[in-house]
Specification:
This protein has 82 residues and is mainly alpha-helical. 45% of the residues lie in helices and 5% in strands. Helix 2 crosses helix 4.
């Protein structure tokens, strides 16, 4: 699946979860899905738990997060000496 099709699965609407990025047609945020995965849930477990969710929806969360991180600049926080 190409980049544009994946990104179309993620939507941002200020009326849904106060504008957090969510999987289109759901109230499942990208952050929530990535949190489930980082805590050990598998794609298959998540798909089984949330009827209608697809592997492509979860892949879209990965891609959205990757694109978001790629478009930001990060600076190390350093402790200032007195």
């Amino acid at each position: 699946m190409n980049k544009e099709k994946l990104l179309k699965r993620i939507t941002i609407d200020p009326h849904v979860l106060v504008g957090k990025p969510v999987i289109k047609g759901t109230r499942l945020s990208v952050q929530y899905i990535l949190g489930l995965l980082s805590n050990g849930s598998t794609m298959n477990e998540i798909i089984k738990e949330y009827n209608g969710l697809t592997k492509e929806d979860i892949m879209a969360c990965f891609f959205f997060a990757s694109e978001t991180l790629d478009k930001n600049t990060f600076l190390p926080l350093t402790k200032q000496r007195a």
